[in-house]
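Example record used in the benchmark description.
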Amino acid sequence: MNAIPALLDHLVLATPDLAATVADFTARTGIAPVAGGAHVGLGTRNCLVSLGGSRYLEILGPDPEQPEPSGPRPFGVDGLAVARTVTWAVSPPDLDAAVAAARAQRYDPGPVRAMSRRRPDGTLLEWRLTDGDTAHPSGLVPFLIDWSSSPHPTASGLPVAPLLELTATAPDPDEIRPLLSAVGAELPLTEGPVRLSFTLDTPRGPVAFD
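Model output (structure tokens):
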């Protein structure tokens, strides 16, 4: 198995139907993701599973309890026909320094903006992340996130499915590798269609997702 990226914070498995994807995940792994919370105003909510340590899987989809958002839902959810691993996040020691370093290497991960959501128990989580049209459209180059003094999602006793492997394919890996380096990230990358894949250690054996 390949080494897990050192700065990995979380993986994003986006879906057009959150309940169906959570049910499928539970059936395949024997592990039931738990509710994370709603992204108010964005029209989405998530369910979470720990990947071991301070890493987690975010399963994100439309929130039927929210009105239609004024703009597109995050992570291209509105255009999905099936669940797909759309991107990943890394947590550098200093977010602003990491963004400046990436721009110095001619890759702009996008502006930094603040976000928040409440866990079902009422705890407010607040974070900053890079987001914008300048990020690479493949999703293979991670966005950057900083939880600062906020509780990390893995601090809430999530069910655990240890991450065994994270790999990717791209039509032109040599285009992606310098961008990964610019944000201080590592990802095993081979030639093929754009795809981000991960394998979990579960009570039902290794289970792969892409």
